[in-house]
Amino acid sequence: MKPHSFHFFNQSFKYCLRFICLWGLFSFSNTSLFSQNQIINDTSKFNLKTDTISTDSLTLKKNSKVIESRIDYSATDSVRFDLISKKVYLYRKGEIKYQKIDLKSGQIEVEFDKRELRACGIKDTNGRIGEKPEFNDDGTAFKSEELYYNFDTKKGVITTLKTQEGESYIHGERVKKMENDVTYIKHGKFTTCDDDHPHFDIRFNRAKMIPNDKIVTGPAMIYIADVPTPLFIPFGFFPNKKGQSSGIIIPNPGSAPRRGFFFKEGGYFFAFSDKLNLKLTGDIYSRGSWAIRGFSNYAKRYKYNGSINLSYSLNKYGEQGDPDFEKSRDFSIQWVHNQDPKAHPNHRLSANVNLVSSNSYKYSLNANSYFTNTTQSSINYTTNLWDRFSMSVDFSQTYNINTGDMNINLPSITLNSTQRYYPLKHKKQVGKTKWYENINLNYSLRADNQLNTNDSALLDKKTFKNMKNGMVHSIPINSSFNIFKFINISNSINYTERWYTQTVEKRWISDTTYQGTDTILPYLEVTKSNRFAAARDFSFNASASTRMYGIVQFKRGPIVAIRHVLNPSFSFSYRPDFSQKFWGYYKTYTDKYGKEVPYSIFEEGIYGSPPSQKYGSIGFSLGNNLEMKVRSKKDTISGTTKIVLIESFSLSTAYNLAADSLNWSPISLYARTTLFKKIAVSYSSIWDPYVILPNGQRINQFEWTQNRRFLRLENTTWTFDVSWSLNSKGKTASNPLPLPSGYDYYGINEVLGQQVDFSIPWNFSVNYNYRYTSSRIASLFSYTKTYVQSLGMSFDMNVTPKWKVGVRSGYDFETGEFTYTSLDIYRDLHCWEMLFNWIPFGYRSSWNFTIRVKANMLRESLKYEKKNDYRDRR
User: Fold this and answer.
1) Distance CA 566, CA 549 (A)
2) Distance CA 782, CA 797 (A)
3) Are 585 and 598 within 8 A, CB to CB?
4) 536: closest CA among 603, 473, 624?
5) Do 751 and 776 form a contact (C-beta atoms < 8 A)?
6) Domain residue spans in the chain?
7) Distance between CA atoms of 410 and 412, rounded to whole angstroms?
8) Whether pLDDT at 733 is above 50
């Protein structure tokens, strides 16, 4: 449509401006009129505000009924402004913004006299309605077929509504929106399916929805695929608060063949605040089993965060009196605490506590928990003292679930100086640094209080009397310098002092007059004396090392160069004999044969005793590295690629100056490399230069003199490790098997269905281990050979865009049996999911089939589960 004359444009604009002034509604900017019936074309925008306007010397009073805020609106097709009816019509992708309200619709009609608007969609040539109204009021959003809204009362009537509240979606045929955002719904549906025609829903006649609080309905019935089910509820109550909220946790009913009928995981959730919550749940079985659990998360921004998980249970499997009846009391305490690095620059507290009973993981359906043999717990506190020392206090515990052995440290304290001291260095450096100015020393301290016991004797009063404690001080003195610019010389004197509060005295008792009534003579009496004692020792070490290179270059062919790196090093160590009477660390007792037997009074100390026998050794080692550089078109910068042929090949031996015989130590060889960036190969062997007798005793005679060979092979070990993960995109998969084969107590692992990634069509992971060991036996004529070979594999793939299958298995070649094997199948059913796990053989052979709603709020309520639990088999 072509524009009219400038005169007509000016007159039209003047009349429009007067109308706006009279009503006090509009303020125009960048507007253009193109026809007599006031049609304003594409993307024209108008701003409506409350200011009264004075034009042509006409002053108006502010209207008390004007709209209280600015209104911005636009449309892509047209905006029709009706001066007589005081209405504005927006067509095609219309949008209105008023205060916190944002409305988008195909057709919008605004009546300024009544301060109301109406919105609806647009029918296409096929009769389908598009561009339906989308209404958003300060985060409360919904879609509808038709909408009426009043700016004054902030009330509205909505036809065919769909709105989202958290994980849930509300549908309604007719909805009334009140001023306080409370919504009344007639003939509605409640569902967690985001489809316009949901796959399942809970239908009701009337409901009241309070935003960020709850949804209350009258009688309701569950429909699946528009088919009514027998599931009927007299009323519905659905929380829809954003974030966490307190409430009852409905228990899950069921039955287990060996434990009876049950209600499990019922309890209450306490949402104290965004920083603290608590979940209390419990289980009860008809045959006497029960359990109680408590879980809490806590956090303080920029300070700390953590979680506490406690559980205690009484488990009864089978009928009392049956041969296979089992009963156990189990507990677990798990605490994780992390301090934010920003909380304090010098202090830090962290904890990772995992205390469990011996049977806690016996019946766990989680594969990782089931295969756990050892648990570890630790609480650590670190701090800086006077900017010179760092101190660490650790409380730790290690527990072997199979044997029941426990190692407890209460506590372990470590103190280290954070800087080295140079006592001979000048404060103001003048000239070059002298070699003696590099002499430096450091200090460290460690104190331990250890208890080694078994879980059956942990609460025994005598147990804690056997705790071992002590303190050890270490002062290393070091210096280093270069000679001839290429040889590095390092020297060190290591001083160690151990402090104990207990020593040992031994004597042989064979006197028939001894008064021990239950004692069988003769016997060795060990007496522990509670007294302070210090054990000191020191040693001297020196080493010289250098590095040599050998390079061979090629002008033609694919090989550019081969480089050989040699790292020879020599060492010298000396330590005096601390078993001499001068030191007072060793004593003797006379056995029943009259022989003097030496022993250390600190032999039961936590840090041991100063070593006996004088030691002086000269050591030699030679390290090798071999690399090759080849031409490569893939590297566009240098045109070459480096290939490591031998990552490391080392040879080492030593000569003991203080020994009167057998001075040479066996020669050790070690080599490793990686083939094709996937296969790790390592080799080690020990070669002895001395003759050995059939009984295994080494004698001071070289192999060359008797057997005409320089060395005798003692043992050899070869290892091959292949670990390879690949996905369909040609990249190493960070999580090659997103379908975990472990299940929690209630079915398939919660990770499954939430983290299944269909964007990667397939993942494959394989791990192969081979170990060959050959060791000499005392007969000298043969070697024992052992082979350890195992294969592990995991694979998952998208069968279709909605089906995913995962397999996990392995094979032990030594036993000829398959290791833990499982098959996982996952089906994405939009708002539902199907899960299947099958462990075909082994002690944990079982299967589990589950269909359930994805949403967390209905996951445990709307589901069907069928399983064969290995725990319920006889």
Assistant:
1) 6
2) 50
3) no
4) 473
5) no
6) 1-154, 666-872
7) 6
8) no
| Cross-strand bridge partners of residue 299 | 305
What is the share, in percent, of the chain residues with pLDDT greater than 70? 84
d(C-alpha 712, C-alpha 708), whole Å: 10
Cβ-Cβ contacts under 8 Å for 634 (sequence gap 6 or more): 641
Residue 79: C-alpha distances to residues 99, 829, 853 (Å): 21, 44, 45
Q: How far is CA 203 from CA 193, 227, 228, in A?
A: 13, 11, 9
Residue 567 has a pLDDT of: 95
Report residue 140 as tokens.
Answer: 């409360």
- Please provide the size of the chain in residues: 874
Type of residue numbered 468:
K
Pick the CATH number of 1-154 from 2.60.450, 3.30.460, 2.60.120, 1.10.1660: 2.60.450
- Rounded-to-integer distance, Cα 369 and Cα 373, Å: 9
pLDDT tens digit sequence for 695-707: 778 889 999 998 8
Q: Please state whether beta strands 440-441 and 156-165 pair in parallel, antiparallel, or not at all (unpaired).
A: unpaired
Residue type, 18: R
If you ran DSSP here, which 8-state letter would residue 58 be given? B
Do the Cβ atoms of 48 and 71 come closer than 8 Å? yes
d(CA 73, CA 65): 20
Q: Residue 493's closest CA among 573, 609, 434?
A: 573
What are the C-alpha distances in Å from 572 to residues 33, 54, 293, 491, 539? 100, 103, 60, 9, 11
Q: What is the 3-state secondary structure (H, E, C) of 186-214?
A: EEEEEECCCCCCCCEEEEEEEEEEECCCE
Residue 800 backbone dihedrals phi, psi, to 5 degrees: -140, 175
CB count within 10 Å of CB 445 equals: 18
User: Which pLDDT tens digit goes with each residue over 530-553?
Assistant: 889 999 999 999 999 999 999 999
C-alpha distances out from residue 836 to 670, 849, 850, Å: 48, 5, 6
Instruction: Name the pTM for this structure.
Output: 0.63
